[in-house]
């Protein structure tokens, strides 16, 4: 299984595998994404980043060796600005699952997410993958707009509650063909 490199970069960003000593800073950044829980119905987990590093956030039957969590840093000053989490080979060997991508809400709308997504697409295409998949909450309109603008133009499934209500949640699985 070809995995994204332990370190890679784009014009303004540097990505590298999460290291144990980075857990507190990355967890703190992760906490700033809590606003998304109103859209996806998830509950905040104070040990999420540590759990992902040691156990992964795996699909059913998934194996840790196919999972990678990386920090996203601004190349200009090496500041931590984001998190990328990827599972290789799900639901097929030709697929990469973009499990989580978050850019610090204080610097969103500056093109970092678009730049990262474009470069990530190049990297996984060069590794031989044919598609990238991701899940996005139906109530997360900013993310739906972002991902469709990034070329995730096919819906492969709708998962979650069947009834619409304030306390109901559902996700779309979007696909970008490479």
From TrEMBL:
It comes from the Bacteria. This is GNAT family N-acetyltransferase. It comes from Saccharibacillus sacchari.
